[in-house]
C-alpha cells in the first residue's frame, strides 16, 4: 500500500484526498464550480499539513488527467506536477471516465450478466466525453467525444449489452437514449476520494506519467469563444 495525495479537478468539483494504506485519511471537496484556481492550493496545503502532523511520508501524487474541463484539467495537472517535482515523488495519472466507472461499481449493484458502464462528461451542446467499460475496466468503446443522438451506442445494444450511464453529461442523454436496456445512475461525480483504487493499482504496477511532459487527455482541441460586444450584442 502507498500514501498518495489525490487531486481531482476535471469537472465542476474541486477535490483533494489523502489516502494511506487503503484508507481515506483526510479529504476536501467543493461542489460550487469555478473554484479550482482559488480552492485547490488551499486544499493541498491542508492535506500536506495533515500528513506532516502525523508523520506521513507521501509516496506519490495522483491527478485526474481527463477528459473534462480544459481549465480544470490544466489547473489540477499543474498543481500535481509542482508537488511531484518538489517532493521528488512519482506522478500518477487517473482517467476520469474510469474513475466514474469505479465509483459507480463501488456504490451501485447492477444485477445484469452482460453490462457495460458508460460514463459521460458534459462537453457542451449535445456532445459528451464518453467511453464504455466492462466490469473489469476493459474499454469496449474507447474514450471519445461523441455527439449524442438516438443511434448512439446502437451497436452495443444490438450485441445484448445493458448500458449503465452516469455523469454530468447523462442529463442530455436521457431524451435521446430511451432503450429499455439503458439505465441511468444519478449523483456520480468524479471526486478525489474515489481515486484511491485506481491510484493504488497504478502504484503497484509502477505506471507513472512524466512530471515534465505529461498533458491532459483532452480528446478534442480547445476552441475559444469570442466574447460578445456589449454594445452591438455581437
Q: What spatial form do the alpha-carbon principal axes imply?
A: globular
Total strands: the figure is 10
What is Rg? 18 Å
Counting DSSP H or I runs of 4 or more residues, the number of helices is: 5
Largest sheet: 5 strands, mixed
N-to-C terminal Cα separation, in Å? 56 Å
Sheet-strand content, in percent, reads: 25-35%
Name the poorly predicted regions. 224-234
The secondary structure category is alpha/beta
Overall mean pLDDT stands at 93
Helical amount: 25-40%
* Strand order in the largest sheet: 3-2-1-4-5
Helices and strands, in order, run as: EEEHEHEHEEEHEEH
Oligomer: single chain
Describe the structure.
It is a single chain. This protein is about 25% helix and about 30% strand. With about 230 residues, the chain is an alpha/beta fold. The protein has a five-stranded mixed β-sheet, sandwiched between helices. A five-stranded mixed β-sheet has the order 8-7-6-9-10, covered by helices on one side. Helix 1 packs parallel to helix 2. The protein is globular, with a radius of gyration of 18 Å. It starts with a strand and ends in a 30-residue tail after the last helix.
Please write out the topology.
Layout: E1 3-8, E2 14-20, E3 23-30, H1 36-53, E4 60-66, H2 70-87, E5 91-95, H3 96-107, E6 115-122, E7 127-133, E8 139-147, H4 154-158, E9 162-166, E10 182-185, H5 196-204
Parallel strand pairs: 1-4, 4-5, 6-9, 9-10
Antiparallel strand pairs: 1-2, 2-3, 6-7, 7-8
